[in-house]
Amino acid sequence: MRRMSAFPASAQQLDLFVSQGGDIAARDAQDLMAWPFFSLAKSKRVTPIDFRMGEVSILVEATAEHGMATIWDADVLIWVASQIVEARDMGRPTSRLIAATPHEILAFTRRGTGKASYERLKAGLDRLQSTTIATSIRQRDARRRHRFSWINEWKERLDGSGRALGIEMIVPDWFYEGVIDQALVLTIDPDYFALTGGLERWLYRLVRKHGGKQKSGWSFDFQHLHLKSGALSPPKRFAFELRDIVRRQALPGYQLTIEHALGRERLSFVALPVDPFNAAMRRVGLRSVDFGSGDKS
User: Fold this and answer.
1) How many CA atoms lie within 13 A of 198 on its CB side?
2) What is the pLDDT of residues 187-217, one digit of tens each?
3) pTM of the full predicted structure?
4) pLDDT, mean of residues 260-280
């Protein structure tokens, strides 16, 4: 379905992309998985993220009114990426202007669908819209920066009687271009949405990006991880929380271990073997059934 939105004139050239319901695979943008773009705290953060590593520079700034977009707010972008890739793979036209119902987003990201959840979603959309990013990633000249917000504009749609029909949002070119290129998107485990801690959510995305399905896995030392997280917690606290994540084996699909070398700690991770049937079920957002015990896996 394609029609024009009631956004201001600047958006009138965009065709409206209407999301589709049903079970689709969760997909994440690799750039967002690899670098520090979001606050990992549930409390309001206004301190900027100013990250530099080699030719990569990222500056994330927040407003005092809303605070910085969080790793939980990023679920909206995962939903957007999943919708765009699914439509592209089915041969449907896509656009940066997207229409949806809050219920679709909340159900996909495994959140409650009541009034409180809707209000939290709207607060998250405000943070995504008010947070500004300036980055050299995917710029031909590392000295140049692309500046944008995660959502250019968003609004609630109402019918003639004032009843809510859903929401519309416009995502930035930088994000859309990364998603529409299939080489820059990865499928993630739907159990990601069940992770409650900001650090473990960030770590899963980093592990999925770098560890992938490689038999030999991957590893980072704690100091490097602390830098890449953009977290405000001191290194000792960060290391304590990492050790706890390893102790609990909290990341779906990966085995975590800690190695010690030259007086430094290093996190290693490797993908766990996956049953092909379970993998197929997870790709479409379903959970498999263990027919031997009758319990859901």
Assistant:
1) 22
2) 999 999 999 999 999 999 999 999 866 677 8
3) 0.86
4) 82
